[in-house]
Amino acid sequence: MRFMLLRLFMLCFLVVALALSFSCNESPVDRAPSPTPPPPQVGVVAPAPATPAVAALAPDDPLPGMLPVLNPHDLYSETRPDKLSPVVRSFPSRLYVPNSISDTVDVIDPTTYQILESFPAGAEPQHVVPSYDMKTLWVLNNQGDSLTQIDPLTGKKGETIPVDDPYNLYYTPDGKYALVVAERLRRLDFRDPQTMRLQYSLAVPCRGVNHLDYAAHGRYLIASCEFSNELIKVDVMERKVLGTLQLPRRRGQPQDVRLSPDGQVFYVADMRAHGVYLIDGESFTVLDFLPTGKGTHGLNVSRDSKVLYVANRGEGSISVIDFATRKVVNKWRFPGGGSPDMGGLSVDGKVLWLGGRYHNEVYAIDTENGRLLARIKVGKGPHGVCIYPQPGRYSLGHTGNFR
User: Fold this and answer.
1) Which of 222, 224, 365, 358 is nearest to 280 (CA)?
2) Is the link from the previous residue into 389 a cis peptide, with omega within 30 of 0?
3) Assessment of whether the complete model's pTM goes beyond 0.90
4) In a domain, 29, yes or no
5) Which residues lie closer than 8 Å to 183 by C-beta, 6 or more apart?
């Protein structure tokens, strides 16, 4: 009996010892802690983080945070002459002219056609752009890698801040980001709209990205790439490229982009195809092409949202496209020629102001009959001129794209 108890005791002891042995020799793979993420690289812009999970958006849902579209049949309904925001009502009407060769900005009184002031800018100022909140104007010093502020209340130059390759400047429709079009660097840089500090940088798969506009719901943009004859479509919220579209006409050079008032068609000027493409943004396909004139460049929507003014820089003319028929209905030629480029409309919409890129002048054009009201001599290489203030609730950027 004592022998049996002893054997039973030894068997229990052996079982316990074996159990302890297996526990102590458990595989380290089974117990490994979560890997430590690598430290961030100094000087490298972090990729955009994954967007937090949200309820799926319906196809026509707006970009979260964007002001609502008040008239879906006319995106520009809030840019009528009587729609000046309280923010800008006290600003004097001035024409701001960036001279990209002289490296200066001329400030002009549009009622007298007189230059009131001229001040130095950075290297190669390309455009003058109203901020999203419409309180500030920015001079884009492309080769100077900087932005210079202008106070539109006084017309005076403010501070200059460093920003890489600011060829053009837009704002996301929710006002969350300033979108610097860094053409030379092949990037779209998402920056803080107040401080201009870089938040995210998106490399683009094309050459010469330069102008863009947003869909009616604000969730994607279409941008032109002049040196590769392409368009790109970019998801605004996810900050990613959705696709590229090679334009069909050989050796094209797409420029300005503007959405039709009904939000159905993107109009894209092409300065080497000498006309305007009509693009379906949803399917990202070419609908049509309208020949307009040599060197097709800048696009401006009329104050009543009925027509599109197309500047033909290579021949000194303005073509007029009717939005209802999507056809060219008129053409105004400048006596003696000219090189109309980018610009904007007076508050009442009666005068179209454009820079004369190769003639060192700016033009005032009567929008009722196309008569050239004035040629004003300015510095060398006037490019994206800005007539300000403008009606609208907010600025999407460029020289005056308001909604």
Assistant:
1) 222
2) yes
3) no
4) no
5) 142, 165, 167, 168, 208, 209, 210
pLDDT, position 16: 38
DSSP codes joined into one string, 181-212 = EETTTTEEEEE-TTT--EEEEEE-SSS-EEEE
Strands (E), 285-349: 285-291, 296-301, 307-312, 317-322, 327-333, 340-345
Domain region containing 99 = 77-388
Considering only CA atoms, which of 176, 201, 181, 182 is closest in space to residue 190? Answer: 201
Say if 18 falls within a structural domain: no
- pLDDT, one tens digit per residue, over 347-379 is 999 999 999 999 999 999 999 999 999 999 999
Q: Which of 130, 134, 131 is nearest to 87 (CA)?
A: 134
Q: Coil, strand, or helix at residue 350?
A: coil
Token representation of residue 359: 């003639």
Encoded tokens for 274 = 């000498």
Number of domains the chain is built from: 1
What's the CATH code of the domain at 141?
Answer: 2.130.10.10
Q: What is the pLDDT of residues 264-285, one digit of tens each?
A: 999 999 999 999 999 999 999 9
* Cross-strand pairs, 267: 258, 278
What tokens appear for 392 in the block? 């609208």
Round to whole Å and give the CA distance between 395 and 403.
7
Encoded amino acid at 279, one letter: I
> For 40-74, how does the pLDDT look when each residue is reduced to its tens digit (9 = 90+)?
322 333 344 444 444 567 778 999 999 999 999 99
CA atoms in the 13 A half-sphere facing the CB of 384: 28
From 120, 127, 126, 119, select the one nearest 143 (Cα to Cα): 126
Is residue 46 in a domain? no
Instruction: Give the helix ranges, DSSP H, for 319-397.
Output: none
- Examine residue 103 and state whether it is found in any structural domain, yes or no: yes
